[in-house]
Amino acid sequence: KIKLSYLGNLGLGRHETLIKLASVIQEISSSLVIDVYGKCPTKEIEEAFIECNGINYKGFVSYDDVKAVISQSDILFHVENFSDFYIKYIKYGFSTKIADSLMSGKCFFLYAPESLACTRYMMKYNPDCVATNREELVKRIKLIIEDSEFRIKCSQKCVETAKKNHSADIVDDKFFNIINSVI
Q1: Residue 37 CA to its chain's centroid (Å)
Q2: Which residues of 60-83 are buried (b: 16+ CB within 10 A; e: fewer)?
Q3: pLDDT in tens, 100-139
Q4: Which residue, 155, 34, 7, is CA-closest to 95?
Q5: Contact 34/6 with Cβ under 8 angstroms?
Q6: Rounded to two decimals, what is the model's pTM?
Q7: Three-state DSSP class for 133?
Q8: What are 11-36's pLDDT values in tens digits?
Q9: For residue 6, what are the β-bridge partners?
């Protein structure tokens, strides 16, 4: 059985997108659920997760537990809400969890609006692991779930992307070059 996990912030309407993602996964295989780790900002969100067949809400966990969950997962998810209200607040944001997930050696999948910085980044480096609408989501998630070799290729590409753009040495060099160009 494939372990699917979401770890992180459940604010900014992400719960709505997680529920939509879970319903697509349930269409593919009713035996699969997303384990969701994070603190629910409201009781209503927690109840929505509990009512969703495709979500197994686990609650908030420590950072040590986060590392353990990542190591046990096959697919890690990050989602963003598709409403204009939330998009204007997160358009240029980039979750640090994305870099951590890419480096984990696990398949990382993003479901988010195409106008966001994180989506444009993933589309550039690993477009097979991004969906910006329901049609793409169904097609790509089905492939990743059902084809283990494809999932492994996606995982390898995630690690390559992280090494190229998020390793400490690379970030130090980029930062140093930016400072030098300003001076």
Answers
A1: 12
A2: eeeeeebeebbeebbbbbbbbbbe
A3: 888 999 999 999 999 999 999 999 999 999 999 999 999 9
A4: 7
A5: yes
A6: 0.90
A7: coil
A8: 999 999 999 999 999 999 999 999 99
A9: 36, 77
